[in-house]
Amino acid sequence: MAEEAVIRVENLAARFDGRTIFEHVSFEVRRGEVFVILGGSGSGKSTLLKHVIGLYPPAEGSIHILGEPMGGLDGAARTALLRRIGVMWQSGALFGSLTLAENVEVPLEEHTDLPAEARSLVAQAKLGLVGLADAAGRLPAEISGGMAKRAGIARAMALDPPILFLDEPSAGLDPITSAGLDALIRQLARDLGTTFVVVTHELQSILAIGDRCIMLDKQARGLIAEGDPRRLREESENPVVRAFFRREVLA
Ligand SMILES: Nc1ncnc2c1ncn2[C@@H]1O[C@H](COP(=O)(O)OP(=O)(O)OP(=O)(O)O)[C@@H](O)[C@H]1O
Ligand SMILES: [Mg+2]
């Protein structure tokens, strides 16, 4: 039996002021996989993410998450759906005046009726999952960049979403910290069955964590590849895809 699609994007187009960023974009994300969105800077990766989670209305096409049409929901149904997805943005900003535990509690305060003690227990548990149990009382300024990324993931996981979106989780991290974050993503996917949609352009991360990927291209204004990244590296005939996966200079 085919794996169930938790996200279905059909013929999506993104335009700003009449300028097409991408069009004819279709893909599915299956339950429990780590799905990677890749492409050069400015190819529209973050824009695609913002469309998928309903921040921008599509110029064309449709998006379904967990079977629900993103565009067709009213206030309450939309909020309920948004509660089921966690997002860590590229800027990843934690609230600077709040401790890590308090940061993780923010979505719980906004979206649940949990009493303070329960919120605190959940926050502690989420920080434990990302290896930050001992840093719960620290402020963002008192931790490293890698720890801040992990805290951002803990906050995105606060409401136990079945789908987590991470926009460039390892940007700006050293290779060892970045590899640790990759291992964490794989572990969470395996242990919790969470579906991950990860935006990155780091080749090593893609090969380490990605079950499947899509590649956006600025010139093509759309998708130029889809599939298992290891196979794309070996088999793609597209010169841009080959250059990316083999770190070759494009002729
Ligand atoms: N709200 C917006 N209004 C107008 N143009 C936008 C908006 N958001 C994004 N763009 C444009 O869309 C294009 C794609 O931007 P996007 O941030 O999605 O790229 P990206 O692939 O995430 O790049 P990076 O790897 O640098 O993060 C850019 O040309 C950007 O200027
Ligand atoms: Mg981006």
From TrEMBL:
Tell me the superkingdom of the source: Bacteria
Listed InterPro entries = AAA+_ATPase (IPR003593), ABC_transporter-like_ATP-bd (IPR003439), ABC_transporter-like_CS (IPR017871), P-loop_NTPase (IPR027417)
Q: Which residues cross the membrane?
A: none
Residues in coiled coil? none
- What UniProt keywords apply to this chain's record, in alphabetical order? ATP-binding, Nucleotide-binding, Transport
Keyword Cell membrane annotated: no
Which GO terms fall under molecular function for this chain's record?
ATP binding; ATP hydrolysis activity
> Which residues belong to any copy of the ABC transporter domain?
7-243
SUPFAM superfamilies per the UniProt record, alphabetical = P-loop containing nucleoside triphosphate hydrolases
PANTHER family, A to Z: PROTEIN TRIGALACTOSYLDIACYLGLYCEROL 3, CHLOROPLASTIC
Its name, as the record gives it, is Phospholipid/cholesterol/gamma-HCH transport system ATP-binding protein
